[in-house]
Design a protein that fits this description.
By secondary structure, this protein is mainly α. It has helices at about 5-15, 20-30, 40-50, 55-65, 70-80.
């Protein structure tokens, strides 16, 4: 897992704009990227505040498909919250 504050800030800004199509696209693109620190927490936080069922489904599918073992500590931390 890499550390990328810039990517995290850009993703957070995108979530704040509430453009459903752009958010959906960004989450789908995350599947093809190397995971970066903080993305799991950001997605979990967004999942908890959004009321859009289709975006929730995309996030659920992203979480279910995670295979990279380097994100394991971040996933455990989010579960404990």
């Amino acid at each position: 897992m890499i550390k990328s504050d810039k990517k995290l800030k850009e993703l957070n800004a995108l979530f704040n704009k509430k453009n459903k199509a752009a958010i959906n696209e960004a989450i789908l693109l995350l599947r093809d990227e190397e995971p970066f620190k903080g993305v799991i927490g950001l997605l979990a936080s967004f999942y908890n505040v959004t009321e859009d069922r289709s975006l929730m489904k995309v996030i659920e599918e992203f979480f279910n498909d995670i295979k990279d073992h380097s994100v394991r500590p971040e996933i455990i931390a989010e579960i404990r919250k």
